[in-house]
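Contributing new complexes? Match this layout with PXL.
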Amino acid sequence: MKRIVTIQDISCVGKCSVTVALPIISAMGVETAVIPTAVLSTHTMFSGYTFLDLTSEIEKITAHWKKEALGFDAIYTGYLGSFDQLEIVCGIFDEFGNENNTIFVDPVMGDGGALYPGFTPEFAKAMASLCAKADVIVPNITEACFMLGVPFIKPPYKKEDIEDLLKRFADMGVRRPCLTGIAYEEGKTGVVTFNPKEGSFYSFDHDRVPASYHGTGDIFASACVGALMNGLTLEKSLSLAALFTAESIKITYEGGKKQWYGVDFEYVLPKLSDMLNKAETL
Ligand code: PXL
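Output block (do not edit by hand):
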């Protein structure tokens, strides 16, 4: 069985980070180890949340794992809350990364043209340095623009602008840069990726539900990691993850739920193995 480790916070309520990565990746038949970076009562879009920083535990955990000679088929990072954590995670990539595993960075920092509370443009630059060590990155357009220090790009997106962003990440050293929340047609959304070796771009889009919910980026990234670990190509993995996320959003939208409580991906989980079996046709 493949084994990955995900490094991100536990937001006790709110369906994001570890509480979505664990069920989704496990449901795809992949062992999911965790390094919780912090414990919050909810994610940071609620007010008055509690916060326990676990930075000092991270290297103790990985030192033990080294002694046990543990290895991982992928290292998947999500929300990281401080410069210290970025530095520590960088060290983990050096220690646990190799040619046979995948370093997957979701540089969770913002959406809709703004950074989440507590993040700064300087932090985004530091996150860009972490991304430079990754095989795959999946920023949204907000995160990409902040990391590259370019003005925020609003829809409708022009192909040349999006492809320019992807090429800049490739120039920084990212093996397979991706961008989420992108489509070139109105009423659609999707994902775009660049293959620098082949000089080719791939995009996948689907109908956009006219609502935005918290945690959907984490659901997308988790499903993508799970698909990659099932041997799918990056292109098929991105497409499957986009469809899984879109279906989770659609079900939630139809139920009329508030956006901060995350999406009801649980209803779509039972379909995941079928989606994996049919992924070749995407
Ligand atoms: O869904 C991303 C995320 C993860 N973890 C925490 C967050 C957020 C987004 O705001 O606050 C703690």
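Reviewers usually confirm one structural detail per submission. For this one: The pocket of PXL is lined by residues 9, 11, 16-17, 40, 43-45, 79, 108, 116, 214-215, 217-218 (CB under 6 Å).
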